C-alpha cells in the first residue's frame, strides 16, 4: 500500500511537472504575436497569460476525460502506474528538447504518442484503444489545416475592409484589440492543454483503484491549473522569438487575426472534448494570416522545419516511452 502511494506521488509530481513545462513551452505561442507587435510588454503579457490559463483550466474537464479513457481503459491495466510514469518522462524529455532548440512542437502530440507507446509496450497492443487513438490523431492533424484556412480567410476579409484606411490608424486600433485576443487565446489554451495533465492524473488514480470513474477531482483541477499558471509565468522566450518574429513580419492587424483564429479553433475543440495541439493551431493560424498578407514574405523554410517536428513528435515520443518503460520496469 505504501509503495503504491509512493508511486502515485511520483506520477502526480511528473504530471504537474509536465503541466509546468507545458506552461512555458506552449503558452509562449499564445502571447508571441502580442509581444512582437508591442501590444503588450513581455512581463504584462506573461502575467495576463498565467491568470487566463488558470481560469481556463479550472472551468473545463471534457478533454481530461478524453485523455483519461480514449487511448486505454485504466481499469484494465495491471501496471497502469508504470505506464503513466514512462508516458510522462517521455513527453517531458521531448518538450524540454524542443524548447531548448526553440522549435514550437506540440505537447499534445508528445503526450498522446508517449501514452500509446507506453500502453503498447507495457500492456500489449490489445490494451490500446486504436479507434480512440486514431480519432485523437485525426483531430490533431485536422486542426492545423482548419486554423490555416480560417486565418487566411480572416486576414483576407480584414485586408478588404481596411484597404482604404491609413495603415498607422489601423494598426493602432488593432494593437488594443490584440490585448483582448491574446487574453482569449491564453484562456482557451488553459481549457485544452491543462486538461491533459488532469486526464493523466485521473487515469493513474483509476488504474490504482483510488477512483472509480474518470471524473476529475477538484484538487486535481486546482493543482494542474496552478502548475500551468506557474509555468506560464516563467515564459518561453526562445519560442516567443520564433513565433513572433521569424515566420513573417507581424503587424497588429495580423496578430489580431492570428490570435482570434487560434483561440476559435482551440475553444471549438475544447467544446467537442477533443485534445488538440495549441501549438499547431496557433502556428498554422500565423502561417495562414501571413499567406493572406503576402505569400512571399512567409519564411517557408522555417515553416517546413516546424511541420516536420509536428509529424515526427508522435512516433518519437512513442518510441521514447517504450524505451523508458523497458529500462525502468
TrEMBL record:
TM region positions: 6-24, 45-63, 83-103, 110-128, 140-162, 302-325
Keyword RNA-binding among UniProt keywords: no
Lipid bilayer topology: Multi-pass membrane protein
Highest rank taxon of the organism: Bacteria
InterPro entries in the cross-refs: Phos_transporter
Predominant place of localization: membrane
GO CC terms: membrane
Signal peptide: none
Pfam families: PHO4
Keywords, alphabetical: Membrane, Transmembrane, Transmembrane helix, Transport
Name by which UniProt lists this protein: Low-affinity inorganic phosphate transporter
GO biological process terms held by the UniProt record: phosphate ion transmembrane transport
UniProt KW DNA damage keyword: no
Natural source organism: Paenibacillus pini JCM 16418
GO molecular function list: phosphate transmembrane transporter activity
Intracellular or extracellular location(s): Membrane
